[in-house]
């Protein structure tokens, strides 16, 4: 599998001190910063958009791993590219009608979003909600349109929820088998107590919000997560 990357979710940071929080967590060993964008429509919560990412970019050279929990991902591609986002991860369920997705062939609407993200100069991530079958993302990975697949292990919308193990995190395994070099990200309820199952399933990009920002010593949590994945 590719190198282990720890991407703390700033959803659990102090939003009034975002630049300092980002700087602090990078100095403590974070590889990427996971930025959760919620539109109050695709998920029942509102967070931040491209204007905040653009402001943060002036204070940070970190890799911005943006997770767009929004109903119309295509609408925001140019704004995020201009704001300095590095990874643009959109939901498979948002890019096309989930009922029209198939494991056998790529849906043109999803493929178009993926191509537009890359054309805008960002890396392409596709996220799957817990109930979405992993087979449905395979056509895009096989077509070479995707740099990362994000497997959600909570229902998106809020930090601090309980990790869904078993079959949900288990969706990583067939992806890893079929695509040894792919970035596979797990997001939701990841902590030192759940990381072993995440690592065993084959993920290499680890998101953790409350476990990192809620810790007395976030650097130790980052190091512990990394050590568990690296074995
Ligand atoms: C869930 C978000 C996650 C969330 C993770 O809607 O996509 O990135 O911030 O937070 P924790 O690690 O606390 O579950
Ligand atoms: Zn996220």
UniProtKB/TrEMBL annotation:
Pfam families: Ribul_P_3_epim. The keyword Metal-binding applies. The keyword Cytoplasm does not apply. Binds 1 divalent metal cation per subunit. One of its GO terms (molecular function) is metal ion binding. It catalyses: D-ribulose 5-phosphate = D-xylulose 5-phosphate. A divalent metal cation binds at residues 34, 36, 67, 187. Its EC number is 5.1.3.1. CDD domains: RPE. Substrate binds at residues 9, 67, 157-160, 189, 209-210. Signal peptide: none annotated. Keywords: Carbohydrate metabolism, Cobalt, Isomerase, Manganese, Metal-binding, Zinc. It comes from the Eukaryota. Its cofactor is Fe(2+); a divalent metal cation; Co(2+); Zn(2+). GO terms for biological process: carbohydrate metabolic process; pentose-phosphate shunt. It is an enzyme of class 5 (isomerase). PANTHER family: RIBULOSE-5-PHOSPHATE-3-EPIMERASE. This is Ribulose-phosphate 3-epimerase.
């Amino acid at each position: 599998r590719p190198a282990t990357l720890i991407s703390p979710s700033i959803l659990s940071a102090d939003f009034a001190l975002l630049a300092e929080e980002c700087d602090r967590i990078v100095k403590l060993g974070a590889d990427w910063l996971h930025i959760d964008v919620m539109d109050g429509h695709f998920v029942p919560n509102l967070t931040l958009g491209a204007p905040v990412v653009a402001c943060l970019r002036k204070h940070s050279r970190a890799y911005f791993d943006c997770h767009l929990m929004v109903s119309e991902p295509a609408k925001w591609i140019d704004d995020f590219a201009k704001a300095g986002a590095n990874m643009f991860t959109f939901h498979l369920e948002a890019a096309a009608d989930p009922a029209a997705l198939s494991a056998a062939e790529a849906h043109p609407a999803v493929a178009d979003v993926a191509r537009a993200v890359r054309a805008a100069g960002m890396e392409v991530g596709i996220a799957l909600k817990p109930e979405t079958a992993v087979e449905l993302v395979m056509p895009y990975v096989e077509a070479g349109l995707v740099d990362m697949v994000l497997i959600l292990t909570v229902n998106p919308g809020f930090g601090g929820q309980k990790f869904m193990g078993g079959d949900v995190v288990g969706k990583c395994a067939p992806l890893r088998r079929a695509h040894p070099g792919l970035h596979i990200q797990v997001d939701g309820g990841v902590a030192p107590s759940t990381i072993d199952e995440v690592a065993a399933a084959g993920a290499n990009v680890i998101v953790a919000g409350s476990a990192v920002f809620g810790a007395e010593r976030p650097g130790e949590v980052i190091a512990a997560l990394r050590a568990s994945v690296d074995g």
